[in-house]
Amino acid sequence: MLTSFRGKLAVSLAALASGLAAPSMAQAQDDDSGVTVSANAALTTDYRFRGVSLSGGDPAIQGGVDVAHDSGFYVGTWASSIDGGDAYGEMELDIYGGWSGTVAEGVTVDVGLLYYLYPTEELGLDTDYWEPYASVGFNLGPAEATVGAAYAWEQDSLGGEDNLYVYTDLGVGIPSTPVSLSAHLGYTDGVLAPPLLAGEGDDSGLDWSLGASVTSGILEIGVAYVGVEGPSIDGFTDDAIVGTITASF
After folding, report:
1. Where is the signal peptide (predicted)?
2. What per-residue string of b and e applies to 82-100 under the rule 16 or more CB within 10 Å gives b?
3. Which residues of the chain have pLDDT under 50?
4. Cα–Cα distance, 115 to 104 (Å, whole number)
5. Domain range 13-248, its CATH number among 1.10.1240.10, 2.60.120.330, 1.10.340.30, 2.40.160.40
6. How far apart are CA 121 and CA 123, in angstroms?
């Protein structure tokens, strides 16, 4: 998600179809500098972040750009339309950087730092926050597995609270076809837990998803079933079937 953290553990369909975070991206490399630039644009029927809808259950436009070096270091940015009201506005903008590389045969590591911004918020509140992340990926023949974690320390934008997210992703490509299958299970402990966001007192909860995607050229089309623990609020924490079409450049 380059496969960076956009990363960001968002459970949009684009993320599900490729494992977690951003979809596979076409790459343009400067052979002399060792720098690779990649980009993507997507239309999803619902922007789900760790199972919770940030677009009010409505479609969202998304896209990002990554710049990576042969050394494994990368930086990138990703944005999505949201339904955040006056407090968060109509746009989420993520900026991140880190290092990703192979540490053993079939084993990759990705570590970095992500900054969430809401540049169109109208109340002047402190809504932006930081979140370091780390994951380990395993190549299991035609299948891939990832385990990871992200931790947002106590920050004013989180009400002085912290948040821990741990997850695992499984993905497999069906041989001799353009079809891939994926599964995701995540657990949140803290201020961003789905039950707590839905008005319940529990500050922990699970999210999950099952998805499939088809790739043709620069396009990827996918569908996924997404669910979370806690109260079911329509267009927010209800289970949903999410569809996404992504173009990679």
Report:
1. 1-28
2. bbbeeebbbbbbbebbbeb
3. 1-26
4. 29
5. 2.40.160.40
6. 6
